[in-house]
Amino acid sequence: MDKLVYLITSFGSEHFYVAALAFIYWIWDKHKGYRLAMVLLSSMLVNNWLKFACAIPRPQPSNKVRVIFPETGGGYAFPSGHAQGSTTSWGWLSHEIRTRRFCLLSGIVIFLVSVSRIYLNVHWPVDVIGGFFIGLAWVGLWQLIFRNYDETRWSPYLRLASSFFIPMLLFLIYPKGDSPMLLGLLMGLPLGRYLDERYLGWNERAATKQQCLKVVTGGIGYGALRYGLRAMFDWICPGSGLLNLVRYALIALWTTFVAPLVFVKLGWAGCEKQQLHTEG
Fold it and tell me: H/E element holding 202?
C-alpha cells in the first residue's frame, strides 16, 4: 500500500504537472493548455504564499505515528499543495472537456491524491480540505476571468511589459519557496504565447508519428533546459532565486514558442499563418 499510495501522490506533484502541461500544449490543444497552465500555476503560487503566511507545521513522526515518504512534502502544511493542485488542474480540465466520464475520472483522481496525503501522514486532514476548497474557488475565479477578459486586445507593448514586470515585482516582494519557479513559468508563458500569435501561429494537430517525434524532441529540450541550466546556474551562483526564475522562464518560452518553431521547421506541425498566406 505504501508504494501504491506513493505512486498516486506523485500525480499531484509539481514536476508531474509541469511536464504534463508541455505535452498537452504540444499534442492536444495549445489554447486549452495555455489556460490550464495559467490557472494551475497561479493556484500553486497562491498556495506557496498561504503556506508561509499560515506557517502551520506538518505532522511529525512519533512512536505511534510514522511519516511515509516525507520527501513528498516540504515546508509548511496548510493548505495542501497536492490537494489544491489536483483540484485546480482536474477541475479546470473538467470545465474544458465537460463530459460525464471525464468529470467522474477527475473526481476520483482528486479524491485519491488528496487522501494519499493523509495516508502518508505529510498533511493534517484540514490541510487537504482547505486545499480542495481553495482549488475549487480558484477554478471558479478563472472561469470569470476568461469569460470577461481578453488580453489580446491589449497593445503589444503593454502585454510584454506586464508579462515581465508583474512576475518580477511579485518575486521581489516574496522570493521564497517555489515562487522563483512559478513566477518564471508565469513570465515565459505569456511571452511565448505573444510570439506565437505574432510570428508563428502553429497548429498542434499532426499524425501520430509526428506527435511522437514532437514529444521526444520537445522533452529533450525541456530536460536540457531544466537540468542543464540548473547545473550551470548552480556553478555560477548556487541557490540564486533570480537565476532559478530565469531558468523556468526559458523553459516556458521553449514550451510555448521555441519548440513549436522547431516542430514547424521540421514539418511536424502546420503553421496557420503560412496556410492562410498560401490560400490567399
Answer: strand 202-203
User: What would the pLDDT profile of 24-65 be if each residue is shown by its tens digit?
Assistant: 888 888 889 999 999 999 999 999 899 888 888 888 877 777
Round to whole Å and give the CA distance between 137 and 129.
13
Q: Which helix (H) or strand (E) holds 84?
A: helix 81-97
**Cα–Cα distance for residue pair 36/42, rounded to 1 Å:** 10
Distance, in Å, from the CA atom of 104 to the CA atom of 96, rounded to the nearest integer, reads: 14
How many angstroms separate the CA atoms of 39 and 43, rounded?
6
Element (H, E) at 203: strand 202-203
pTM: 0.85
What is the dihedral sign for C-alpha 99, 118, 20, 47? positive
Q: Cβ of 175: how many Cβ atoms within 10 Å?
A: 15
The count of other CB atoms within 10 Å of the CB of residue 30 is 20
Distance from C-alpha of 117 to C-alpha of 68, rounded to nearest angstrom: 10
Cell reading at 96 = 474544458
Phi then psi for 265, rounded to 5 degrees?
A: -65, -35
**Cell 509548511 belongs to residue:** 76
Provide the sign of the torsion angle of the four alpha carbons 156, 37, 256, 207, taken in this order. Answer: negative
CA distance 44 to 239: 21
Burial of 39 (0-12, 13-18, 19+ CB in 10 A): buried
* Dist. CA 264–CA 217, nearest whole Å: 12
